[in-house]
Amino acid sequence: MKKKKSESSARGKRAGASVKPMPDSQIDFSDIPESTTEELRGARRVGRPSSGMAKQLIAIRLSPRLLSQLRKMAAKDKKPYQTLIHELLEKAASRAA
Prior knowledge:
It is a single chain. By secondary structure, this protein is an all-alpha fold. The chain has a domain at 64-97. The chain is built from four helices and no strands. The chain has helices at 10-17, 37-42, 64-76, 81-96. The longest helix has 16 residues, at 81-96. The protein is extended and about 60 Å long. 0% of the residues are buried.
C-alpha cells in the first residue's frame, strides 16, 4: 500500500511541486545575526527535563463523552487533562493495591 503524501490544500500541493531542494551551502544566512556570548549563556534546553522518573508514553482509547468530562474537570482545576487522568489513575491504583 502506497503511503499518501499529506498536503494542506490544493494550492499548497501546487506550490510544493514547484519547489526544488536546495543544499545548505546555497542558503543565504546573511540576514540572520550571529548569537552573542550573552545570548548563548542565557539559552536553555527546550523539551522535557531528563529525570529518573520520566513517564512512559502510551496510547489509550476513551469515549468522546468521557474525554470531554475529563477535560472539563481539568479546566475547573486549572490543570492539563493528562495530568488529571494520571492523578485519577494513581489514586485508583493505590486504593486497589
